[in-house]
Automatic annotation (TrEMBL):
This is Phosphate ABC transporter substrate-binding protein (PhoT family). InterPro entries: PBP_domain (IPR024370), Phosphate_ABC_transporter (IPR050811). It holds the Pfam family PBP_like_2. Keywords: Signal. Residues 36-274 form the PBP domain.
């Protein structure tokens, strides 16, 4: 009977601990609303500059605290799958197979398209040619020799830029020769600015919104015009060429919200997709998913009439 009493005591104690933990979790959710509370957002490292700008303005407007965690695309996705993260910002939507993972958990991810950016090719500004053919880059990714490319430089072998180029070249792995990888886009830009005949592959946001340390290195690189596969004309990753669907390396950006309740994930996505957020994107050099409206004041009286 004594042992039974001890077991009952421990069973009650464990039950109290579980109930307390559940109450704390529910309390935390109740304290968080679409414009209030704290949340962690994982972001593809190639998109970090523009999302940092969005977070600053969002926090200034609302009683919210958002922690940004910048990781490679593969790491960001894995954080969603293993439930380390519930909000992520990616350069692609979830696949049907990935959606099944969340559906099995009774979660229906809220996917919000927010902008279109692009992958840019850069070279040292001492290079003679400022134009590159996409077919040459694809050939290099397939392991073929290309006269005007000594090497391709990526931020991370798990990054969205590597995944994008692998899909474009229809290869399962990057060639063992001539491909260099670093940890960040900053390091890619620095390396290309110091080495001839190297082609850097970066998110265009890092060029339009460089950090203070990177700005000096950007002065020593050239953003290459790209000849696509459809014709022999070359285009820059500019807002205009992206908007007219001329630049061949454009990609859409998405906020993936797997919170499962009305929290900051929903509020932040609405903010970025709304008027203020889209104006921030437009100013950054990327293409908004919807063009912010402009207010025009029409005067019915001239200055002379008022006199």
């Amino acid at each position: 009977m004594k042992n039974f009493g001890k077991l009952s005591y421990f069973a009650v104690l464990i039950l109290i601990v579980i109930i307390t933990a559940c109450n704390q979790k529910n309390k935390s959710k109740n304290q968080e609303t679409v414009i209030k509370g704290s949340a962690t957002i994982y972001v593809d490292e190639t998109l970090a500059p523009i999302i940092e700008d969005q977070v600053v303005i969002f926090e200034n407007n609302y009683d919210a605290n958002i922690k940004l965690v910048s990781k490679s695309e593969a790491e960001t996705l894995n954080s969603l799958f293993n439930e380390k993260a519930s909000i992520a910002i990616l350069t692609r939507n979830l696949t049907a197979e990935e959606l099944k993972i969340f559906q099995q958990r009774k979660i229906n991810p809220k996917v919000t398209p927010i902008a279109t950016d692009a992958i840019a090719f850069i070279s040292r500004n001492t290079a003679k040619d400022s134009i590159i053919a996409l077919k040459d880059v694809i050939s290099f990714m397939q392991g073929k020799d290309v006269a005007n490319i000594k090497g391709l430089v990526f931020d991370n072998l798990n990054s969205s830029t590597v995944r994008y180029m692998k899909e474009l070249a229809v290869v399962s792995a990057v060639p063992q020769k001539g491909v260099f990888s670093f940890k960040t886009n900053d390091e890619v830009i620095k390396y290309v600015s110091e080495n001839d005949n190297m082609i850097g592959v970066v998110g265009v946001n890092w060029l339009s919104q460089p950090s203070a340390a990177t700005e000096k290195n950007i002065q020593n690189v050239t953003i290459l015009r790209v000849v696509g596969l459809a014709d022999d004309k070359s285009y820059l990753p500019s807002q205009n060429d992206i908007a007219e669907k001329k630049y061949p390396l454009a990609r859409d950006l998405y906020i993936i919200n797997c919170q499962g309740y009305s929290g900051l994930g929903m509020g932040f996505a609405s903010f970025v997709a709304g008027d203020i957020g889209q104006r921030i994107i437009l100013k950054s050099g990327l293409l908004p998913i919807r063009m912010p409206g402009r207010k025009i004041t029409i005067k019915t009286k001239s200055i002379n009439d008022e006199k």
